[in-house]
TrEMBL record:
Protein name (record): Laccase
Keyword line: Apoplast, Copper, Glycoprotein, Lignin degradation, Metal-binding, Oxidoreductase, Repeat, Secreted, Signal
PROSITE patterns: MULTICOPPER_OXIDASE1 (PS00079), MULTICOPPER_OXIDASE2 (PS00080)
Native source species: Psophocarpus tetragonolobus (Winged bean)
Cofactor: Cu cation
Biological process terms in GO annotation: lignin catabolic process
A Pfam family assignment: Cu-oxidase_2
InterPro entries linked: Cu-oxidase-like_N, Cu-oxidase_2nd, Cu-oxidase_C, Cu-oxidase_fam, Cu_oxidase_CS, Cu_oxidase_Cu_BS, Cupredoxin, CuRO_1_LCC
Domain annotation Plastocyanin-like: ranges: 12-123, 137-285, 383-517
Family statement: Belongs to the multicopper oxidase family.
Protein EC: 1.10.3.2
Amino acid sequence: AMVRHYKFNVVVKNVTRLCSTKPIVTINGKFPGPTIYAREDDTVLIKVVNHVKYNVSIHWHGIRQLRTGWADGPAYITQCPIQPGKVYMYNFTLTGQRGTLWWHAHILWLRSTLHGALVILPKLGVPYPFPKPHTEKVLVLSEWWKSDTEAIINEALKSGLAPNVSDAHTINGHPGPVQHCASGGYKLQVQAGNSYLLRIVNAALNEELFFKIAGHQLTVVEVDAVYTKPFKTDTIVIAPGQTTNVLLKANRAAGKYLVAASPFMDSPIAVDNVTATATLHYSGSLSSTITTLTSLPPKNATPVATTFTDSLRSLNSKKYPARVPQKVDHSLFFTVSLGVNPCPTCVNGSKVVAAINNVTFVMPKVSLLQAHYFNISGVFTDDFPSKPPVVYDFTGTQQPANLRTNRGTRLYRLAYNSTVQLVLQDTGMITPENHPIHLHGFNFFVVGRGQGNFNPKRDTKKFNLKDPVERNTVGVPSGGWTAIRFRADNPGVWFMHCHLEIHTTWGLKMAFVVDNGKGPNESILPPPSDLPKC
Ligand code: C2O
């Protein structure tokens, strides 16, 4: 295994999109940011130098960080932020991991422009479990705002209302040729007869996306850096935080074909947004016309999303077995919901909040991992409820009279190496909503999923404990539930939150603490000497 060195200069750069120019925070002046390349088991050292006026921290989304929680990145969870003018060296090893992951800022709303792909190739000489593609391409899907995203979220928090939605989606940084005022767009260059591995990342702040290429089928081979049983589809569905690898065969008449990313939002109050486009270019094609899509799913096309999600299975081969926990030590039931709390200074005298088990998470002033490691009292408690303190009708047909949530920095303690089953239930408080829940430090198996209220007697029997998909971010369906299982084999403090940025901001987050403090493998390593101070 190798040691790979990267330098990330956090700098402001003027960028023009949708006919207007604005300064954005970037890594090394790039949008999207640079792709990190490494191989399984390599060690990666990334020196982050903060040249901007904001506090910064970077998260390596999906990297397990075995015993190196100090490098995970979420501000005030595993580290204090890197202050202006300061430097922090992220140092971690890609033990047993390969595939497409990504990195992003994990503080404020900086991830709107601070994000990029993290590609982990298999060990030298180890083939993919699918036919070798001719070439690989990274496609980062994201959003673009004409105004400053920090101003947008600050305004929303002041008013207590929902923030403005983005002005466009982007593919590799560009809204594409269909968007008014956009020039060009990303060109995906291919050669007839070849096949390509597309590494697709959804880096959008607040939108799940459909992704489609006119005239071409896609074969899904991996999600969240775990191989899947290959299956063909014409549409993929990808939530913020998720990554999906597909094989694309350039098997059509040489020409130009439209590539599109459009919103999937089935919440009844969802605001629409603009489709991003790019073009698939066959080399040598002289035609100037672009073959367009015959159809794109409407934004509320839940059945399209469900069909896609239900097709996902772990590869579960001899070489890549699915190690699904068959017995459960901790059985947890968490509701994910929005709520309303009083706010005298807000527009309506109240503000929108979000919660897990009715707890709206309050960010601490020093990092939870430091508080845990150095035994600093008064930073958090470990009494996070294992089930909701209030009984809801989760279908949303009946709203509880009280939409108020409790506030707290409460964690749930897991014994090292214990097994966990967690049922995540959407509640329909204010509105049902699809919540892409991301767990740091672990992959988990998605053993079940359904509509309405989770019924333990009926639903547990139907769990797939053989070849469920393994991932790090999963959508809890609108008005439904998702069940996951994982083994708590990574000591540290691990954040779990909705990857719709606004829901995280509103408090839809909590953390697990895993540590027996017993032996070298059951405890985290000491903090690095340059760990930022608060
Ligand atoms: Cu990709 Cu806690 O985030």
